[in-house]
Design brief:
Layout (H helix, E strand, L loop, with lengths): L11 E3 L5 E3 L8 E5 L6 H12 L1 H6 L3 E6 L3 H11 L4 E4 L4 H5 L3 E6 L2 E6 L2 E5 L5 E6 L6 H10 L2
Parallel strand pairs: 3-4, 4-5
Antiparallel strand pairs: 1-2, 3-8, 6-7, 8-9
């Protein structure tokens, strides 16, 4: 897992519309990069909707908000459209960014060990440095907590 004060790894991932997003696209502005488990699950839906609800507030702070999961682009588009999610959702199907950011965990699901994502949010400053890492977060109210931290940058 990466820590505050470290340089955020570059990424190059497709979004729900299959457009490529790169870390360089967001600099020199702050970026909230939230890694979540899976589209259309209760906690992940809550988290994505709450970030979407605050997206204009983040924008007033010149900060972008981007979600990342291992779902594919089509699933992201379906999830986005179903719930009115407005934040950009990136598809890390192969888990490269998840690995680079250290958010992959192995856990038992139905008696089988599977690799999954540990819900983690990185607040990255305009120079590409990690300002805050929030891990194992509770989805409800998380976006508001992150907004307070971004205001302090």
């Amino acid at each position: 897992m990466l820590n505050s004060g470290e340089r955020a790894p570059n990424f190059e991932l497709p979004d729900a519309d299959m457009s490529i997003a790169k870390m360089a696209d967001y600099l020199p502005k702050p970026l909230v990069l939230f890694f979540y488990v899976r589209d259309d699950t209760p906690g992940c839906t809550t988290e994505a909707i709450e970030f979407s609800d605050l997206e204009n507030d983040f924008a007033r702070l010149n900060c972008a908000v981007v979600g990342v999961s291992r779902d594919d682009c089509i699933r992201h588009a379906t999830f986005r459209d179903k719930h009115g999610i407005t934040v950009r959702l990136l598809a890390d199907k192969d888990g490269v960014a998840c690995h680079d950011y250290g958010v992959l965990v192995t856990r038992e699901v139905d008696g089988v060990m599977r690799e999954g994502v540990n819900r983690t949010t990185f607040i990255i400053d305009g120079q590409g440095m990690i300002a805050h890492v929030l891990t194992g977060v509770t989805p409800k109210g998380h976006a508001a907590e992150v907004f307070k931290l971004v205001k302090e940058l």
